[in-house]
């Protein structure tokens, strides 16, 4: 076999430096980018998602409670509510709750306290329902403290749950 030995390094090839292919200038050790902004953004997104989820779930639970169902039933069958606000009373839906009504307040049956407000729509406009009921002792029935409708124009209608 034929062996070729070289006494020196090869001559470098021609190198043409073009403007768009300029080599990067060395700037020393690169700075380490801080990841705090990413962590804070992810934390804010996670807390916001959890808050929206919790709001949706608790609102859904209030909607499905027997108290809210009974209140809407009483409003639909009350004589004075029909006269003032018209027939066809339904709970006003919100797009951000997947077309479900927004129920504000709390339903705490074991503690004996119900305080709700929600919007309803009738043929003659929209109203806000306010309902508060309390049980002073575990052995006593709930006592209705407030049950009224307030229309957007300021009309107030107190609902009598006994006669409905």
From TrEMBL:
Keywords: Membrane, Transmembrane, Transmembrane helix. It comes from the Eukaryota. The chain crosses the membrane at residues 36-57. InterPro entries: Coa1 (IPR014807), Coa1_fungi (IPR042432). One of its GO terms (cellular component) is mitochondrial inner membrane. GO terms for biological process: mitochondrial respiratory chain complex IV assembly. The keyword Transmembrane applies. PANTHER family: CYTOCHROME C OXIDASE ASSEMBLY FACTOR 1. This is Cytochrome oxidase complex assembly protein 1-domain-containing protein. It comes from Armillaria tabescens. The lineage of its organism: Eukaryota, Fungi, Dikarya, Basidiomycota, Agaricomycotina.
């Amino acid at each position: 076999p034929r062996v070729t030995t070289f006494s020196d390094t090869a001559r470098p090839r021609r190198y043409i430096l073009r403007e768009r292919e300029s080599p990067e200038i060395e700037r020393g050790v690169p700075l380490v980018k801080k990841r705090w902004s990413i962590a804070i953004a992810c934390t804010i997104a996670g807390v916001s998602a959890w808050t929206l989820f919790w709001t949706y779930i608790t609102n859904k639970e209030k909607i499905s409670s027997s108290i809210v169902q009974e209140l809407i039933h009483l409003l639909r069958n009350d004589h004075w509510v029909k006269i003032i606000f018209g027939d066809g009373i339904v709970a006003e839906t919100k797009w951000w709750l997947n077309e479900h009504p927004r129920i504000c307040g709390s339903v705490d049956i074991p503690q004996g306290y119900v305080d709700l407000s929600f919007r309803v729509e009738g043929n003659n406009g929209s109203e806000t329902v306010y309902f508060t009921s309390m049980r002073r002792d575990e052995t006593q029935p709930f006592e209705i403290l407030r049950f009224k409708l307030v229309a957007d124009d300021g009309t107030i209608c107190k609902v009598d749950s006994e006669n409905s």
